[in-house]
Amino acid sequence: DNGAERTCADDGHDCTLTCSGFRACFKMTIHGPPHPHKLHVICTGGGGATCYEIQVHGEASAGVRFTCGTTGNECGYYADIFCPACDQEDAPNDGCDAGGNSGSAGASVCAVSCTASSSGQQYTCDGMQVYSGPGGAEVTCTEVGDAQDTSVGTCGNLQLHAPPDDGTTAVAATPLSLACASCKSSSTSSSEW
Question: Do residues 83 and 110 lie in contact, with contact meaning Cβ atoms separated by under 8 Å?
Fold first, then answer.
């Protein structure tokens, strides 16, 4: 379903989307279930471009988990992850506004995990944009096994955005975490976009 748009059912359950293999969920847009339910997107398998340019909308969900762990190139390449309570209305440059979506406020989870595991693997989560809501976000990038010292661009140019502090709904305490202990690539954390 290249370029497809899907919405998780509002059926009282969490939603899991598994994308496995070459070009699985390529340029797809997925909308998570409403609070109090969570969305988990799992990108797995072999072949390249799994979850390539996927749009993960979890603004109204209680939690979002995005896991990219393929053995092919470009898993999660230029993906956009919109965390719980990320309010896009009137936000600058398609980011998130500090106002938040009150439907998913509270203790929300937004976790992104990107793992390169095969020799010479390229561009896992490269160019990804993660837009945190007031509940924060945690991004972890790792290179394991044969990928250590041979992979290229793991989480390169990844950006983790905090909602701006507009003075009326201060979010200065938004917890953000960007960990790339074994990666050679450069990533940034930003409060402006």
Answer: yes
